[in-house]
Amino acid sequence: MDGQGLDSWPWEQSSEIKLFFKQLFQAEISELIEHSFDANPEAYGTCILGKGKDFLNRFFQFTEKSGLKAKPHIRDTLEAANSSDYGLKVDWQNESANQITLYLRYTSESREKALTRAFSRDFQRTWTGPTPDALAAYFQSPSPFCLGLRLGVNTPPTYSAYIEVDLSHPELKIALSCLLLAFNWPNSLCGKITQDIQLISKQRFRGCVGISSDGQTLKIDLAGASLGASLKFLKTIQTSPRRIKELTASARQLQQLQTNYFALKYNASGLIGWKMYFASMNQHIKAVAST
Predict the structure, then answer these.
(1) CB within 8 A of 72, min separation 6: which ones?
(2) Alpha helix locations (H) across 118-221?
(3) Kind and range of the H or E element at 91?
(4) Regarding beta strands 34-37 and 270-279, do their DSSP bridges make them parallel or antiparallel, or are they unpaired?
(5) Which entry of 75, 171, 186, 201 is 20 to 30 Å from 1 by CA?
(6) Is 138 exposed, middle or buried (0-12, 13-18, 19+ CB in 10 A)?
(7) Domain residues of the chain, as ranges?
(8) Per residue in 18-36, pLDDT tens?
């Protein structure tokens, strides 16, 4: 992968919408880009960071071009959110933008205002699961550092909230038990989730926890998980040898020996998905992936 990340994989054979994304966000892509992969070999994600109103305006341009245009009330909500730091993740499939997620990132000084004011119009109206503040309290964390909006094909817009977590495994299990109770999920799931985490990170959990606005999904992001431990976990959940070989090749192509983070996604039935993230240029984006 070349130093600029603009003319190499995955940009060699680009559709019209991918070329539009590349041109619209060329400055951000050249500075840093994060790639993500899951079980589907035909799908992958790209995430960039941006700042200011100009970046937000270009986000609106991209959603309109991609066919996932944000409705006026969502645009009003985002403009009122008063965030100057953004993350933009695009999930691609068959060379089309299948899902777009905008992350609004906040400093500790602006978190309280963000939660009480920023999403007063739409965010609070659509939030039916445990509140972002409750999530933070369960995990002994400050209020969420990141709020997300997801636009998908044939799906209604959803919001999400993320907190930074650094806990021992016993502390994590207690926090998860409280959250699962608020979700009204089976308590037996707590043991399964902590077991999964310990297979990847044996010492303690460092990373992020995210929840969706509908209270239906939980995301566990393990920061800096080793490539070896992540691949070993995938073998335990019966990931195909071919897919593991493809992921190993992608890591080699991106010159990465460890993940930026390894993400596990759960619902009330258990593990429903995973993603492996790599940041190019040996830099790291703070874990803010969608639930």
Answers:
(1) none
(2) 123-126, 132-138, 169-183, 188-200
(3) strand 85-93
(4) antiparallel
(5) 201
(6) buried
(7) 16-282
(8) 999 999 999 999 888 999 9
